[in-house]
User: Fold these one by one.
Assistant:
Number 1:
Amino acid sequence: MGLEISRPLGVGGISSNIYINRNRYNTGFGQNSVSDTFERQSVERYTTEAAINRMINSNPKIKKIVKNFNPQMQLNIQELKELLNKHASDTQKIAKGIAENLPFSLRNKVDLKAIDDAAYLHDIGKVLIPENILNKAAKLDENEIKIMHTHSQLGYEMLKTTDISPVTLNLVRNHHQNAKKTGYPWVGNDFNADLNLQILSASDKYSALTENRVYKEAMSPKQALTIIYQDVKEGKLHPFIFKALVNHVNNNTLSKVS
């Protein structure tokens, strides 16, 4: 496959000794550059109940999306706060760790601000997903899965009524997509799972796998990385990003021990 792991995720730690065949994985990531250095405003301003109601009222498409499962537009504000405090915060830290462990040539192409903002906001659409689906302590049925999958589009539709950057908007919309275009929501032939999106997607997935949730127990870092490595083998995730994630996990584990 052009990607080899010594003692792959074996006993005694997670190896980051990854060989990458650059000819096989000579995949472009687009030309996104680091965003400007002006002082940023906190994106927390988009997550208050008042701000969410303004966004919903500014875009009629949102009501059309939820009309069959949340016609009263009930907001799960408490659920959103919990997501922001734990999962969103973890996703931000992991994304930063991946970026810091990339080769210098790729690190220069990372839009840190856009990724950080999107990592915080990527699940904001879940504020409109019914609580009985979000916190179901069992496997979702087919219809419930379809409803859950609307959260990324809902987040996009909400935030596009604001002044948030187009790069961040697209990251929020497509954080469950991948380089093979097998995720959701639907994307066209011109879709490119660029560097920023793959960092966010990998960070979100690792955070979710290693968290306790009502329907599952937390996985170990080794278990989570084994699953994400499968995405590399299937061409959904670039090996450079996986290697950076492994390095971040190893560094973070060592710092906790010391």
Number 2:
Amino acid sequence: MQKFRIVNFDAVAAAVAELCGKAACDLPEDVLDRLRQMETQEISDLGRDFFVQYFENARIARNERMALCQDTGFAVFFVELGDCIRFDRGTIYDAISEGVACGYRKYFLRKSIVNDPLFDRKNTTDNTPPVIHLELVPGDKLHITLAPKGGGAENMSAIRMLKPSDGRNGVIDFALETLRNAGGNPCPPTVVGMGIGGTFEKAAFLSKKALLRKLGEPNPDPRYAELEQEILEKINATNIGPQGLGGSITSLAVHIEFFPCHIASLPVAINLNCHAARHAEVEI
């Protein structure tokens, strides 16, 4: 008989509340490392000055427990839930929502969510509901990753249903077009998440999940790793630069995730993060 592990609802909510504060205030080490690496390649004096400010902002946020950016984002979660887990009450959705409401109040994070996208647009006052991507996995562990998404970068996302005949060059052209159209709006240097394949919605999901990879770590498939590097080099040759004011570093990394697709389709989605690529995770 299968044994189930009982997980405490309040413990999950409390862990999520702490994730909200950590993600908002602590720039991950992989992001800082990549910023240091790319700073050495920036040829613009103004661009290098921006990098100095990025590091100082990260230091103040970490030490003073202040948000890295006033836009503390939509709370987006990627959750791996073990199939041997049961909750003592409620659901994982309820626990995460309660944790977000608590965390955004506790850490004085801006509440940015409206209850209706088109008509009422009244603030929900606690930054709920979150977006939760849930995956059921074997075992009795619960892994939660929070990746807050601010409006400036999120608004520059794009998806295109390419024809299979568009191929590799079509993917590259779409990426460059998207970054040129974005300009300084997503607070470059950006992290570029790309989802290739699947369906319309699967490609969009993959593009956001791609942003969770350790910054600058190449795709394990050498073909896609080569494509990531080529797109990054072409983006950085656009001279958009830090904050869109010119320079050699427009993006810190391009991350691609891919999935099988229909013989008649080639979906490509692009999701951008600003230079403050926020994320935090916990295992329970």
Number 3:
Amino acid sequence: MKEITISTIIDAVEKLCIDANYFIGKDVTDCMKANLEKEESPVGKEILSQILENNSLAAEKQIPMCQDTGIAVVFLEVGQEVHIVGGSLQEAIHEGVRRGYEKGYLRKSMVYDPIVERKNTQDNTPAIIYTDIVPGDTMKITVAPKGAGSENMSELRMMTPSDGLEGVIQFVVDKVKRASGNPCPPVVVGVGLGGNFEQSALLAKKALLRPIGSRHTEQKFADLERTLLEKINNLGIGPMGLGGRITALDVHIETMACHIASMPVAINIQCHASRHKTVIL
């Protein structure tokens, strides 16, 4: 059995928080560059160029690429043969976030009370933590900072089987249309199909972790991803909502079984940064 110490986990989460905010993934920048050639609007082209320059400067100067450094969403895949020693796993995650947001000069955005006092927690904790127990003797940690501009544009609908494929397409495209420039397009659209109320939302968020350009393993859902991407990019919203061809970089769908009488569909939109970093311990 492999031992992983709490201190190792804290250090890993601290670094992931910083790196996710400083360094944008190559899949994102490559897609942005490719779409720069496809964008038909001069204003859209200029915005995409500025985003690429901003990302480059953030990495070079090691500063956050956006002032909204997000809520810290942490995904854990913990191997069954892993023994965590030295303290609480959840507390280690919170401490790593606390240190990362302090050391990286990242904006602290969490409030204790969501509705009355809304007092800042001062350290961006608590993190949002999802844990899966998997075979093996490693621990995979992914930190995905999620800004409010895109998160606020999320939506979940408990559809019925009679709504069918066309109903799903209409819901997703209409949601992106209503979101317009609020989530800082070009966006990545995560769609969760199936499960139940809460599982569909988690599927949508996990969909955002996939590399840009990857496709669902089932052909019918891969085809649906392509269809949705085309329809969204025909909306004319464009970069930062100022008009143009490139409203979305990609659409990712995750699916699972559901009840015979229901068809949950969740949409989680991510801004153009699509921030997330992963380490395997």
Number 4:
Amino acid sequence: MSGDSSARQPSATSGGLRQQALGGELDWEAMTAEDLAAYREAENGRRASAAMRAITGMPDPGATIDWQSLALPGRRLPVRVHRPVLGRGAGSADRAAALPLVLHVHGGGFVGTAVQSDWITSHLAARLPALVVSVEHRLLAPDSPLSAAADDGWDALDHLVRHAADWGIDPARTAVFGESCGGLITALAAIRARQAGLRLRAQVLVNPVTDVTGTMFDHPSATRHAHSPTLTLPQLRLFRRLAVPSGTDPRPLSPLHADDLTDLAPALVVVPNLDPVADHGRRYAERLRAAGTSARLTEFPEATHAFVSMPGVVPQAEAARAEITEFLRNALDRPGGC
């Protein structure tokens, strides 16, 4: 197995985070590289802390969780691996059987860690059951645009499938699942999978960003929910500035504007209604359907962006998790390919 259990969790130190605006709010659009690095270190430490479990939820005891790393060209990529614990009643054939693979990509864009998603990823590992590998992708920064994170998502998927025997997975039963910026990364990975001849069983996109072109903020939901409790327009403007630096063509990084969405894996698109990027998910589901790709759109009224990562404070996360689990189980248990 291409693994390294010494891959480190994010630091919990706070650094010299500077809050520049009145009321203790960060001035997102004026944030410097130094401010961003300090904010990321503090915030990721908070998200990875035991105290945050009250918000992000407790992992499912039916799965083990371990940090490992993938040896990719020119770099090692940390991944958080969730593996089901087979009960005492499981026979030797069950223990030896190859598991389905679910590649997960967390949200956050310029901040975030796979730890924040342990509640749902461990549940999927235990209840499908499946090997769930959550990618600790490169975060957006002045020297790390969205293309780097997109490469991490695809390269991790490609590596795991090519080394399926080492990981104990069945490459013919593979799905991808992403949240927010991770939804964008996995949508791009699904497109690249089709181009590479990899037949995915399913893609799950939760409150995905799908448009980083100049029209990113023109969708009605961006205006209607510009200052939602969990994602604001200023944060999205910083996201876009880091994602597609000046001179970068944003269309190849915008699934909503992809030239060809035919013959992709069936999609479940989960949209919280109180979200500035809600229309990104809605429009992408429409485009998938128009291209002949199966796409189920499920909306959650009164839910905000990233609600699936906050089951401790947003009860609707339970219903979303149940639907995601059912969708993936049906796709991964189905005989044959897509």
